[in-house]
Design brief:
With 194 residues, the protein is α+β, with helices and mostly antiparallel strands. Helices cover 34% and strands 13% of the residues.
Length: 194
C-alpha cells in the first residue's frame, strides 16, 4: 500500500512546483520522492493534473500547419517510405509553408492524428490481409505421406501411406500419379481452415 503524504508537505510541494521553470520538474520530483521516502509515481498521483485537454487548440493556425506537414509526410520521394514528422516539418519550414518554431514534432503528430490526416494503408511487401477473412490463401502441394498404389476397377485409386524416410521428395511409386493436398489459410493469422 502506498505511503500517505502529509497534507502540509503536499501543499508545500505544490507551491514549489508552480515556480519551477519548464524542464526542471522531473529532477525536483525525484528530490521530493527521496525526501518523503515514496515512489515518484505516488507523488504524481497526489498532485492535481496540471494539463487537462479541453479539445481546443492553444496554438493559432496549428491545424492548417499540421495538414501541410501531413501532406508532406504522405508524399515521399519515389521508392521511399513515409517521411518522419521531424523531416516533414523541416521541409515545410524551409519552403516557408509553416513558421519556424510553431510547435514541436509531437504536437504536430497529435494534431495530425486528431484530424485523421494520417489514414494510410500500411506498406506491404506482398499481399497481406489487414483484417480476418479479407484474404485467404489456397495452397496445393504434393502429399509427403500418401502415394497412389494402384487404380481400382471403378476408376478410383487406392492410396497407401508412404513409410520411407522423412521428406524424401522423389519417392519411388508404382504409378506416377500423385495425390495433392489442398489447404485454405486465413492470411491474417495463418489459421488453416481445411
Amino acid at each position: 500500500m502506498a505511503k500517505a503524504i502529509d497534507p502540509a508537505m503536499l501543499d508545500l510541494m505544490k507551491s514549489e512546483m508552480a515556480t519551477i521553470p519548464r524542464g526542471g520538474r522531473v529532477a525536483k520530483m525525484a528530490q521530493w520522492a527521496e525526501l518523503l521516502d515514496v515512489h515518484v509515481s505516488t507523488l504524481y498521483g497526489a498532485l492535481p493534473a496540471t494539463r487537462v485537454r479541453t479539445g481546443t487548440r492553444s496554438i493559432a493556425g496549428i491545424e492548417e500547419a499540421a495538414l501541410i506537414v501531413a501532406m508532406i509526410k504522405n508524399r515521399p520521394p519515389e521508392h521511399r517510405g513515409q517521411i518522419a514528422t521531424k523531416d516533414a516539418v523541416k521541409i515545410a519550414v524551409g519552403n516557408g509553408l509553416v513558421p519556424l518554431g510553431m510547435a514541436c514534432d509531437g504536437t504536430f503528430d497529435r494534431v495530425i492524428r486528431d484530424l485523421g490526416a494520417n489514414q494510410q494503408r500500411r506498406r506491404v511487401e506482398r499481399y497481406q490481409a489487414e483484417y480476418p477473412n479479407q484474404m485467404h490463401h489456397l495452397d496445393a502441394s504434393s502429399s509427403n505421406c500418401f502415394y497412389v498404389h494402384h487404380e481400382l476397377s471403378d476408376g478410383d485409386y487406392m492410396l497407401r501411406i508412404y513409410g520411407g524416410t522423412k521428406d524424401y521428395k522423389n519417392k519411388p511409386v508404382p504409378i506416377r500419379l500423385r495425390p495433392w493436398i489442398y489447404g485454405v489459410a486465413d492470411d491474417t493469422g495463418g489459421n488453416r481452415d481445411a
